Amino acid sequence: MLKDIIASARTGYERDGERGLLKDLYAKQEEYYRAGNYRNCPAKTCNHMGKKQGSIATAGEAYDRHETNVLSSVSQPDLLTLRMSQGTKRW
Question: How far apart are CA 36 and CA 24, in angstroms?
Fold first, then answer.
């Protein structure tokens, strides 16, 4: 699974640089996450892509499912500012 995620990121980078890397990385993380095979909420990658609302929604869904790893994720500096945004009152 991790090798597949890394391969997707590499392919994206080779195709379109940083933008392609993030796009393909997020897509593959999301695929495995939705299937229940990837523990880490892809909200952080979504946030790096500049998709603030998508990041808030993804982290909020994980929080609603009581995923323990999302609690530590939202305290990281790059996601901490999301907690102060509208729409994050529940977490």
Answer: 18
CA distance 63 to 67: 6
The C-alpha torsion from 78 through 37 and 65 to 82, rounded to 10°, is: 10
Q: What is the pLDDT of residues 31-62, one digit of tens each?
A: 998 898 888 888 889 888 988 888 888 888 88
Question: What is the rounded CA–CA span in Å between residue 40 and residue 16?
Answer: 25
Token output for 39: 């523990």
Contact 75, 63 (CB under 8 A): no
User: Contact 57/48 with Cβ under 8 angstroms?
Assistant: no
Which whole-number Å values give the CA distances from 32 to 21, 29, 75, 83, in the listed order? 17, 5, 23, 25
**Model pTM?**
0.77
